[in-house]
Design brief:
Layout (H helix, E strand, L loop, with lengths): L8 H7 E3 L10 H7 L2 E6 L5 H9 L5 E5 L9 H16 L8 E5 L5 H9 L8 E4 L4 H18 L4 E6 L2 H4 L1 H17 L7 E3 L1 H6 L15 H14 L9 E2 L20 H5 L3 H9 L2 H13 L5 E3 L5 H6 L5 H10 L9 E3 L6 E3 H18 L1 E2 L5 H8 L3
Helix pairs in contact: 5-6, 6-8, 8-10, 15-16
Length: 388
């Protein structure tokens, strides 16, 4: 699979200076962590789940979470587990069908080995598990269960812990909670693909819900948690992990208090005014701003609950031609001694030593999301990726 693989090859050639690279469920963890992109959540109760998964691949989805936790009622868990086993068996019977990376969000550690056992040979379609309300105490049991299930099945399985517990919100417990989580995930580093932020649960601790006119970063108590999570768990010194962005809850807005957050000029230049109006109507202007802030704050990828959110996440994850040129300049072997240079675009300073980690991360993103041509912007990528 590859990002933007759902559009025609000739269209990709028009859009990309360097096309997104191919990857699959057996690719190195480093590649998969960067490639997750918009991870689409779906309740595990859906009767036509297998067909839905195949359909989403045609819309550009490369990772999905099938949820047995908060998205379904407590009374539905047993039936949802049975449904998952049946749907994975169905997918296993379609060997030539391309699938996204598939993860199951469980409630309890015991579900992991039980589901792997019940899946049998169909486990080859599974990439791992999402671990809810992850703390040091809860996390060890989940990760030990995953390690045991992996050994029993012979299938590499990844964990994606969700950081959403009240201990991370409360000032008096946050530092200890983060240090405990850091110790736990470091011990199981080979199994942890990425860390996910559960901002809806963070807001719940204070009876908050951000409106569609605002991003997670406008809710200061939430922004402070994101900053501390990245501070402790997202470092670029080799100890950090990929941390993904929070969910965007909206997909249609009835009434606005504030002006839309999308400038008109990029859409006028591309004759895409109708696209701008559609994005605003579906609250995606707020999503686009939040994605940009995710990147600025060290997050990559995003939890999504609606298919319309996938393309904006991927379009804004493509490396611009200018970013790519700056990163390559910074990482040239002859720059090993450091120094300062003017960017090729003549609009910024590139300082080799401080910007090296940024440049390395840009090239990692370019590997999976590609590099846009010099005259291609996010509006072009959005327009090209929309279904006919």
């Amino acid at each position: 699979m590859r990002h933007f693989g759902h559009i025609a090859p000739e269209e990709r050639q028009r859009l990309f200076h360097r096309e997104p690279g191919e990857f699959d469920a057996d690719s190195p963890a480093r590649v998969l962590a960067a490639a997750l992109g918009a991870t689409l959540y779906s309740p595990a109760t859906r009767e036509r789940l297998a067909d839905d998964i195949v359909k989403q691949v045609g819309r550009g989805v490369v990772s999905m979470v099938l949820c047995l936790e908060d998205s379904i009622d407590d009374a539905e868990v047993v039936g949802a587990e049975e449904n998952l086993v049946g749907q994975f068996t169905d997918l296993a019977g379609r060997p030539d069908v391309e699938l996204p990376l598939l993860f199951i969000r469980v409630r309890f550690p015991e579900q992991i080995p039980d589901l792997v056992r019940r899946l049998g040979p169909a486990v080859r379609r599974l990439s791992g598990f999402v671990l809810p309300k992850f703390t040091e105490d809860r996390g060890i049991a989940f990760l030990e269960a995953l390690t045991a299930a992996e050994a029993a099945s012979g299938r590499r399985l990844f964990a994606m812990p969700v950081l959403e517990s009240p201990e991370l919100m409360y000032r008096e417990t946050r530092v200890d909670a983060l240090q405990g989580i850091a110790h736990t995930v470091d011990k199981y580093r080979d199994r942890v693909l990425a860390l996910r932020l559960g901002v809806t649960d963070f807001c719940s601790s204070y009876a908050l819900r951000r409106p569609p006119d605002m991003t997670a970063y406008d809710v200061q108590i939430v922004a402070s948690v994101i900053a501390d999570v990245v501070n402790v768990l997202g470092r670029a010194d080799g100890t950090g992990f990929t941390v993904t962005g929070p969910v965007w809850e909206y997909f249609r807005v009835q009434e606005r208090m504030f002006k839309p957050q999308l400038r008109t000029s990029p859409f006028l230049a591309n004759r895409a005014v109708d696209l701008r109006e559609s994005l605003i109507e579906h609250a995606l202007d707020g999503l686009l701003r939040e994605i940009s802030l995710d990147h600025a704050n060290g997050l990559l990828g995003k939890t999504c609950i609606h298919p319309s959110h996938v393309l904006p996440v991927h379009a804004l994850s493509v490396v611009s031609h200018e970013e790519y040129g700056d990163a390559q300049d910074i990482l040239r072997p002859e720059r090993g001694g450091g120094g300062v240079l003017r960017s090729a675009s003549r609009n910024k300073m590139n300082e080799v030593k401080p910007h090296r980690a940024w440049a390395e991360r840009v090239l990692q993103r370019a590997e999976v999301f590609g590099v846009a041509r010099e005259d291609i912007g996010f509006v072009d990528l959005l327009a090209a990726g929309l279904p006919d």
